Amino acid sequence: MFDIKPRQSKKFQNVENIKKGNFDNKAVFQKKEKMPLSSTRKNIGLGVILIAMIGMFVFTDLTSTDIFFWLFFFAMFWYRLDSRISIGGALVGLVVIMFLSAGQGFKWWQADDLMEQIAVGVYFFLVIGVLKQIWEYKTESKVYKPGIRQSGVKSS
C-alpha cells in the first residue's frame, strides 16, 4: 500500500540526481561559505580602526599613505577579507602606472613622482596580499599526520 523508503543523506541524493541528470550547478559546485561576522565584531573592529587611525595621526610621524596601508592591513585580517582584494588593488595600480607612463611622451605630462608613489602603493598591496594568502593557507590547510600519505594508506 505505502511505499516507504529509508531516508537518504543529502550527499547521496546529490549523487543520485547527478546520475539522473537532474542537478543544479549552484548546489553541486558551491564554494564552502565562511562564517559571517557578527555585528558586534564589525562595530568593535570599526572602533578599533578609528582609534588606531586617530592615534597614528596624533602620536606618530607616519604619512597618511602609511597610515592607510597599516589600517588596510589590520582590516584585512579583522574583517576576514579575501586576499584577492589586496592583489586586485595592486593590479589596478599597475594599470594606472601603465597609462601614466604612456603619456610621458608629452612635454606637459610629467607624472614621475606620482608613478613612484603608486608603485610604492602597489608594492604594499602585494605584500599585504601575500601575507594574507599565507595566513589563509595556514588556517585552512589540512593537518599533516606523520606516517600517513595523502591517499590515506599508511606508509611503511
Please mark out the parts with pLDDT under 50 across 5 or more consecutive residues, or reply none: none
| Cα Rg | 25 Å
Proportion of strand residues: under 5%
Main beta-sheet annotation: none
Shape: flat
In percent, how helical is the residue content? 55-70%
- SSE order: HHHHHH
Task: Report the structural category.
Answer: mainly alpha
Give the terminus-to-terminus CA distance: 56 Å
Mean pLDDT: 77
Number of strands: 0
Which assembly state applies to the chains in this document?
single chain
Number of helices: 6
What does this structure look like?
- The protein contains six helices and no strands.
- With 156 residues, it is an all-alpha fold.
- Among the domains are: 40-81; 82-140.
- The longest helix has 29 residues, at 112-140.
- The termini are far apart.
- The model has no long low-confidence stretch (mean pLDDT 77).
